[in-house]
Design brief:
By secondary structure, the chain is of the alpha/beta class. It folds into 2 domains: about 240 residues, Spore Coat Polysaccharide Biosynthesis Protein SpsA, Chain A; about 100 residues. The chain is built from 13 helices and 8 strands. It has an 8-stranded mixed beta sheet with strand order 3-2-1-4-7-6-8-5, with helices on both faces. Helix 2 packs parallel to helix 3 and helix 6 runs antiparallel to helix 9. The longest helix is centred in the C-terminal third of the chain and has 52 residues.
């Protein structure tokens, strides 16, 4: 699924505003890619980004001290395409700080840009991905985040069986309703790779330094505007299996020293952050008052703790289901062996084996 690199070096024609902005270093969209040790898939990923039909963007690559071939590949594409800029951290920052840096660097280089998206160093994007998301934000001023349907792909690029998930809050005018529905139904790990209005993303704090920061980000964003999902499969998420755990997040986010609050249940740390942001600091004013911040924190605490309990029960149910499945398979194998050998012979052979194992 590799795509050829697109080079944009030609002089723009009169009336071609997209190329005019790009030629003058004023892209409408900035993309930030936090890099870390995904050289095996990085080349394919970046080519799918550079192959977008919407070309008025700049791509900032921020390498968090990768130890594989990532720096070599990044410098290669920086030399190939004028839209690409690469930098390497002097020390490991961790995923949250490196993602924040990707936005900050892109923003500093292109302060006039309107929209921003994170792109990973291992996924794939359909050539119409960026055009579709830009069109969605352009056409809907009340939408603060646009993202597409997606499909999971395996390490080798094969499509996996799981079908796309669907969720948005498009057309929901009430911030309280958007917040309530979002807490219960959001798929934060997928939504985070959508296209944001930069000013609203910055107002929502980008990424707070907590575990599961994407859920907290979308809780704040939901108060400022709507989320819209484009009903086309335009993003292919590389899936390496069930790798999520809070301990993995702590190791990925806090590379030098893990603060004690990182071990506080996420729904409590998120609630405290929302209370601090809206009621103490008053960052949401005038749209969100300090008094409303108390209600927001309370609503989040109640619904997020419910979501956590539901996820815990589902996780336990999944583990029980896996064990029952293994037991059923074992029973089938035993039944098949009994049919082949006969019940008496099977029992006798296993009994002799058992007794023999216990002889002195």
């Amino acid at each position: 699924m590799a795509y050829p690199v697109v080079h944009v070096n030609s002089i723009p024609k009169p009336g071609d505003s997209s190329k005019y902005h790009l030629a003058l270093g004023m892209p409408r969209v900035i993309l930030g890619s936090p890099l870390f040790n995904h050289a095996a898939h990085f080349r394919e990923a970046i080519e799918s980004v550079l192959n977008q039909t919407f070309t008025d963007f700049a791509l900032v690559l921020v390498d968090d001290e990768s130890t594989d071939e990532t720096p070599h590949v990044a410098r290669e594409y920086e030399a190939l395409d004028s839209r690409v800029w690469y930098c390497r951290n002097d020390r490991r920052l961790g995923l949250i700080d490196n993602s924040r840096k990707a936005l900050a660097v892109a923003r500093a280089r292109h302060p006039e840009a309107e929209y921003f998206a994170w792109v990973s160093d291992h996924d794939l994007w359909h050539p119409r991905w960026l055009q579709a998301l830009v069109d969605t934000l352009d056409a809907n001023p009340g939408v603060v985040l646009a993202y597409p349907l997606n499909r999971r792909i395996g390490p080798s690029g094969e499509l996996l069986k799981r079908l796309p998930w669907r969720f948005d809050t498009f057309g929901v005018a009430s911030p309280w309703t958007r917040l309530r529905v979002g807490i219960r139904q959001m798929r934060a790990g997928n939504m985070v790779y959508g296209l944001y209005r930069i000013d609203v993303l910055e107002r929502a704090g980008v990424y707070r330094k907590v575990v599961i920061p994407d859920r907290l980000l979308f809780a704040e964003l939901s108060l400022y505007g709507q989320f819209k999902q484009v009903s086309q499969v335009l993003w292919f998420r590389r899936w390496y299996g069930r790798v999520f755990s809070l301990e993995r997040q702590r190791a990925s986010f806090f590379v030098s020293q893990r603060p004690l609050y990182a071990y506080v249940p996420w729904w409590l740390s998120h609630t405290a952050s929302l209370f601090w942001t809206f009621s103490i600091r008053g960052d949401g004013r005038p749209g969100v008052s300090r008094a409303a911040g108390i209600g927001i924190a309370g609503l989040y605490l109640g619904l997020a703790s419910f979501v956590h309990a539901r996820q815990t029960i589902r996780g336990a149910g999944g583990r029980i289901g896996e064990r029952l499945g293994a037991l059923k398979q074992r029973v089938r194998l035993i039944a098949a062996a009994m049919r082949r050998q006969g019940v008496k012979n099977w029992v006798t052979s296993h009994l002799n084996e058992y007794l023999g194992a216990h002889r002195p």
